[in-house]
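Issue: ligand-bound run for carboxymethyl coenzyme *A - logging full I/O for the record.

Environment: standard queue, default settings, no custom constraints.

Inputs:
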Amino acid sequence: MAEDGSGNRNAVTDNRTTEGTARNGAAGDHTLTVTDNRTGQTYELPIEDGTIRATDLRQIKTGPDDFGLMSYDPAFVNTAACRSAITYIDGDKGILQYRGYPIEQLAERSTFLEVAYLLIYGALPTREQLDAWRDQITHHTFVHENVKDIMRAFRHDAHPMGMLVSTVGALSTFYPEAKQIQDAAAREYQTYRLIAKVPTIAAFTYRHSRGLPYVYPDNDLSYPGNFLSMLFKMSEAKYRPDPALEQALDVLFILHADHEQNASTSAVRAVGATEVDPYSALAAGVAALYGPLHGGANEAVLKMLREIGTKDRVPEFLKGVEAGERKLMGFGHRVYKSYDPRAKAIKQVADDVFQVTGVNPLLEIALELERIALEDDYFITRKLYPNVDFYSGLIYEAMGLPMGMFPVMFAIPRTAGWIAQWLEHTADEEQRIARPRQLYTGPLDLDYVPIEQRTK
Ligand code: CMC
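Outputs:
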């Protein structure tokens, strides 16, 4: 280990913080000195933006045949895989910004389509840009009739997320030019199509689960208004969405639009890095979002609230959580170690929606869970707070949606974030095919054993 002069032996010295250690002036101030105690050799690694490059570790070898040092980071807990200018999160302070704009301001003053533009193009649109963008999205909302046939082929009780994964992937077969990912015009078209068509497919999954005829888009309505129409229109000539629900849905869409390098976005980036078309890359994102630890958590929260059943059973349920028997779904986050700012905004939306729909009776249980958990040592010491999924399911249920639709409601707006991240990734010259390393732990050089000679 490196001697630091005080008798302490440190393998690694951060020269930004250790007085007297920086030997190379200004450059040395931004380096990390590492001593490999296997060889006694010392290396100086540059620190840039608070990181060292994992590939810089490869020069640290015990001999010419040594592969070189790697970093081991299961679940990517401390590895930055890209540079991104899209979404900023400060998990300790509970800050979330899209392209530098605080989420609270966007939720209060913007619209989802404007936010989608902001995420994708990097700046708020002018009036003309917004009109042109809205026009493009509105005119791509219809899907090929065969898409309907694909969806009709699913079982009557197919999970809507399973249908969404498959149908988003299937879109690539309708737009083979989407493979030309180096062509800016082709990328632009797939962007319009994905943002326009995912709500149509999402609404069809709901109609399918209800055995109802699919409703075509109504291009006179707003983005959330049209979605409500495709969900709920029956025999009326024109569906008129409740303005409060339309507004609430738009805010929910804004809050879910992007969240930097989460599991589904990482899936989109990793699959996109193979240079496959964006429909296939986004299908991977939808699949990742389906999981109960990610976008499927809103569904899991509702199941949990139903299972708890009554407010007086909350303490007993939380005892089970503390004993490690189960998780409190809708709580905790890899990045937020304080209140998720989206969860705060969603509570406000819940109030607005419940004024129209009536209060979801499960709200009482959710509030009691939050109240007790926030005062409880288990949750305080682990910094576990409600996340975006804790209250969203209650709202969707009050709107009349079945649980299986909740993650679909997350996927619609996240499509904008996935595309923004995919576009950024595609333009990033530092990126190549994503290919992590492994630490092999299995046997080597075994001789093949014929089946008759094998024993258990
Ligand atoms: N209930 C009970 N304990 C929890 C929970 C929870 N929801 N979340 C984390 N913990 C505990 C965990 O057991 C661990 O305890 P210990 O140190 O004693 O082993 C500690 O808190 C740290 O948790 P972790 O598992 O290291 O955290 P992670 O970053 O790997 O996982 C998470 C993050 C979101 C997957 C996890 O908090 C979780 O499973 N939450 C419930 C599912 C959920 O609500 N997901 C939605 C996430 S937000 C929206 C989205 O991305 O879709």
